[in-house]
Design brief:
Elements (H helix, E strand, L loop, with lengths): L2 H24 L9 H20 L9 H28 L1 H6 L5 H29 L7 H29 L3 H15 L6 H7 L1 H7 L3 H13 L7 H5 L6 H21 L3 H4 L1
């Protein structure tokens, strides 16, 4: 057996064990355990639906608004969880990194894969809501929805790599990211429809939906919830505009990979 094959197999085993450990430790000691991975987004969805759906009536005129809202909450929660866990992955595994020599990127991968497993569980819950509500499902959903999720995962992984490398040297990064996440939640059409923004300022709406996360959320809503959901195509009238968010994701991935590789040489010194 070649040495490269042995190393590759060792890395796969290590990645698997880290994912399993992350998933087990996350809810260790809690009574409900893994159920919290489903309950947390559902509880947040319930609060947001009561306040913004029933009281403020943000969902007025939006078909299947409960599913529409839940889709946005779940996808945003995945981005938040993947980037936060990825950001702290290197620091939290500092003792392991000092003892064992292995590729540092595996630690960040394990954190984001753990978040991806949670997303898979929550998508099952969304599926149940879709069936119960009778929401529209587009014919191309089976092909395009997985691609949309892959785009979201690559974006989250790229951000996680960049934050993980920066957080080792600058611990203020975690506090700055928390503020960014809070602001990003309201700057992304999650609790309100993008059509509400279009009514007030079309250029702001066009700028907002170029955000890859907003694009992913709106495409997912269109594919699995309602064809009334605004997408990049419906806002701009051309599919070529999709090159913008895809280019952003690609550029972030390249920059994050380069920065992580450059900084990884000094991780053990800075930890």
């Amino acid at each position: 057996m070649k040495i490269s094959n042995i190393v590759s197999r060792r890395n796969r085993i290590l990645l698997r064990e880290l994912v399993i450990t992350d998933f087990k430790l996350r809810y260790q000691g809690s009574i409900l355990g893994y159920l919290w991975s489903l309950l947390k987004p559902l509880l947040l969805f319930g609060i947001l639906y009561i306040v913004f759906g029933e009281i403020l009536r943000f969902g007025k005129g939006i078909p299947y608004y409960p599913v529409y809202l839940l889709m946005g909450v779940v996808l945003w929660n995945f981005f938040t969880e993947a980037t936060r866990q990825g950001m702290t992955a290197i620091v939290s595994r500092g003792s392991l990194l000092r003892k064992i020599n292995f590729p540092k990127y595996i630690v960040v991968f394990s954190a984001t894969i753990s978040a991806l497993i949670n997303l898979g569980l929550n998508i099952i819950v969304i599926g149940i809501f879709i069936v119960i509500s009778g929401a529209e499902i587009q014919m191309e959903a089976l092909i395009l929805f997985p691609l949309v999720i892959i785009e979201l995962y690559i974006l989250s992984l790229a951000v996680a790599f960049f934050l993980a490398a920066a957080n080792v040297k600058y611990r203020d990064v975690s506090h700055i990211w928390d503020v960014f996440i809070q602001a990003g939640f309201y700057a992304t059409p999650i609790i309100y429809p993008i059509s509400m923004v279009i009514e007030r300022s079309e250029w702001v709406a066009k700028l907002m939906i170029l955000n890859p996360i907003a694009q992913v959320i709106q495409d997912s809503r269109y594919l699995l919830t309602t064809s009334a959901s605004q997408t990049l195509f419906s806002v701009y009238g051309t599919f070529t505009v999709y090159l913008i968010p895809l280019t952003v994701v690609a550029m972030l991935s390249i920059i994050a990979s380069f920065y992580f590789k450059k900084r990884s040489k000094y991780f053990t010194e800075d930890l």
